[in-house]
Amino acid sequence: MDLRPARLEILEHGTGRQVALSGAWTVAGIAAGGELLRQSLESVARQRIEDWRCLDIDAMDSAGAVLILHNWRERRPLALAARDEHLRLLERLDAVAHKPEPPAVRGTWTRSLAILGRYLFHIRRSLADFLATLGQTTLDALHVLRHPTDMPWREVSANLYKTGFRALPITTLVGFLIGVVLSYLFALQLKQLGADVLIVNVLGLGIIREVGPVLTAVLVAGRSGSAITAQMGVMRVTEEIDALAAMGVPLGLRVVFPKVLALAITMPLLVLWTSAIALLGGMLSAWWQLDISHDLFLDLLPKVVPIANLWIGQLKGVAFGLAVALIACHFGLRVKPNTESLAAKTTASVVISITAVILVDAIFAIVTRGIGVPKL
What we know:
It is built from twelve helices and four strands. The chain is elongated.
């Protein structure tokens, strides 16, 4: 049905003036009203008319209601005739416009406590949501163990490729450069002490146990973690997640679980690869700086670095992969349907993931402080 353009007229009658509204007071109707409507609104704004007739309005939306309220100048006219549904819309928007603001918190200490309370409440709610994601992923893992045919192989395979194989170039480049830099810095100090051969101990223990796992986790958090959060956020914005839920597709099993499992598998492999490349860079630099041959370096490495350090590095890789994937999925599921929330959650995902990696690494350092450390 074609709606008439919005129209406003000022009528003269025996007792005074009356504003008569007609047509469609919607976005389209107001635009169709054109110059005549604009002039009429300006005329009403210059006068004070307390008699409004709105019974001839065909349709009204929020834009039209706000325009009418604006001409009332914060006060409802004394005589108003309108349909019930239009009156309810006007009253609801008028109530929102005049909603009293919450009382301002006075005092520096009181305000600081209020801000601290809000942050603590936000942290508590985020932790509860994260534990819910962790619990659902654990239940999905138990379900797959009991029903192996429900394993989402295709999703797991796709995530293995994206988070593992496609991350090899950047981890290779950064790992090699870090190995060269560390070897160069330690070589200068060890050369002054006449302990050139200790470069194998320093590089082996430091890269295999600490630098390799942490460096890989930081790179994966910035690359794959942000990609997971952004992907799930876009699914939220485009309502794909709502569509999956409406179709009865288990969101945790099909979306979250494959990403967590894939990253838990690829992270230790990437740690192993990055550590090997970093040792290669360190070995080449040691040969260049200290004239330590490749044969000597490779012969000393297993003797001065116990194999326990390699297993500790692999365990760290699994823990880092689980932490990064769960945090990325947690923030991805909580993206609101707008681009600002998508950017904020992606940034928060990377920051919290790197912080969690450092925290987990500190826990490993405390728990395994007496394991794999060579006796001098």
